[in-house]
Amino acid sequence: MRSYSFSGTSKKEDIANTAEAADFTFLVEQFADLKIMRFQVPGFEELTVRQKVLVYYLSQAALCGRDITFDQNGKYNLVIRRTLENIYLTYNGNKENSRWQDFVVYLKRVWFSNGIYHHYASDKFLPGISLEYFNELIRGSDQEGFPFREGQRVDQLIEEISPVMFDPEIMPKKVSLDAGNDLVLASAVNFYEGVNEAEAEAFYKGLEQTDPLHPLSFGLNSKLVKEKGVVFEKIWKMGGGYSPAIEKIVFWLEKAITVAENPEQEAALIKLSEYYTSGDLKTWDQYNVLWVKDLNSDIDVVNGFIESYEDPLGRKGSWEAMVNFKDKDGTMRAEIISSHAQWFEDNSPVDGRFKKKKVKGVSAKVITAAQLAGDCYPSTPIGINLPNADWIRKEHGSKSVTIENITYAYEQASLGNGMLEEFVLTIGEQELAREFGPLAGNVHTDLHECLGHGSGQLLPGTSSEALRNYQSTLEEARADLFALYYIMDPKMIELNILPSSLAAMAEYNSFMRNGLLTQLTRVNPGKNIEESHMRNRQLIARWCFERGEADRVVEFVKQEGKTYVKINDYLKLRGLFGELLAEIQRIKSEGDFESGKSLVEIYGVQVDKDLHEEVLTRFKKLNVAPYGGFLNPVFSLIVENAAITGVKIEYPMDYTAQMLQYSTDYSFLPNW
Ligand code: ZN
User: Fold this and answer.
1) What are the domain boundaries of the chain?
2) How far apart are the CA of 476 and the centre of ligand 1, in A?
3) DSSP state of 124
4) CB under 5 Å of ion ligand 1: residues
5) In 3D, which of 258, 326, 239, 284 has the Cα closest to residue 61?
6) Amino acid 401: pLDDT
7) Which residue of 10, 231, 308, 531 is most buried, as measured by CB atoms within 10 A?
């Protein structure tokens, strides 16, 4: 599970000293609705050579999976990317015009989204050039360089991919969560082939858990296919689906094993490599148990088929990787929180039957990301809590991380962009946001990840998949509500995590403003909200707004035609957060699909059209890209007299160059 930055405000003063930060360019470029940034890797130089080499090997393993993400996000993505890249590199016509610029922007968007669907909104973005011009570009490019099927000609290739790119009606959405549709057929994501929702559900219902207390994550690492009337899984593993990329991943993991920091980490990495080799889900669980227990290493990695946000049925794991190491100062704060996990669990407003009697070691740390890949690149979360399997979390605990060099980069890149001034009514509230917003944001992420996701328990017999397409949204809401409820608790000041309740007020302001108002900047005119985290935030904000309307707990204030959010009673709002937390925990614990569905559909999905239009108009004037992603630093081995003596880190500035480099060096999957 993950959290994403919603305000772009989060900061920790000591993450990089200010002089260093002042010389560093965080914001590299903007196009469409995207900004490309860079992040620093403070503390890398302080690692030992062996640790640096480990970071290098794990980073290589991470980059080798890039094509998997493209293919998972839609079955034409790789071919479209390669077609566009061939044009970009070999087109010999005129490039001094806006049509060419539009083409380049399209290619940059495809790179950013790992395919032709918006990385966040999930709908297909159109090329922004005409089909005629596209044909002209094709004709003016190297005819041998296109990604053909065997025996295919250029015109046949174009005929095959043009409708997918240009026709808004064909495969319009990566993931459809619209109730009433056949979710599988309505989603372009490449997890199912030839099966519909009912067949997929029937297939997984028919699989028997041999050990019901330790259920395997059926479907996590496979594509479900129907051929000649038979439904079966194509497992992603060595010798199976995605084998050419997985072989490379395993190659680098095996190198990493040779420089592991300690036996626990070594055992975990060996198990991960075994899992990629066999594709066995039991091995995957064993790996996760080892990974959770590996607490003393500085370096850590996430690498695998993990989050199921992109599967409308919530089973299939998107491939992702992130290499990181411990931020020791930041980790102290997270450790204080997690060492009191049982207190938070015992005192939460949820029904006693749904609470964990004994919270298993939630290990919380703050990390520094060193390399992002797959579904975490270039758009990346700011917090991660894994593993996802409920039984492992319950019996062995989970690891929860806040990625502060990323939140810091967001903050630096958004300095002075005008958002606060435009959307916050009073100078006092703006100042509160500036002074406490960053710290409060980080603490929210800590609470969300260290405690929120790990809290509560299912009643015996409740399936963890019972909430189906509403699972992700409700799970994120649960974690956010846990954080919101507790950030206002006197315990925060008592534990010295926050300096005063002003910080919690800043967080409430920011959360409600975002959920009711500013996150609408990320929704296209006329559309509803699709993405789980966004649905969750609006669900919470709207529900509390309506519930507290009679008491005017939160209200909209109009001034000079502009709408602002104003909180009148912070303590009552906290009470509402607690009430909703109790209800959503009940829904999860009992697997109450219908109640979960109506909460999300009523509060999380629909957009207030007038307000949306107003917000978009105000936002447009600021010329701020609503989404961001990051370039990776580049690591290279320093070799002297045939021995590795160090690892160099560089921070490239050129987005296009990095993407082309990756397509050259880390592209292992076939075209079709
Ligand atoms: Zn989360």
Assistant:
1) 2-42+327-630, 74-189
2) 5
3) B
4) 1, 3, 476, 479
5) 258
6) 86
7) 10
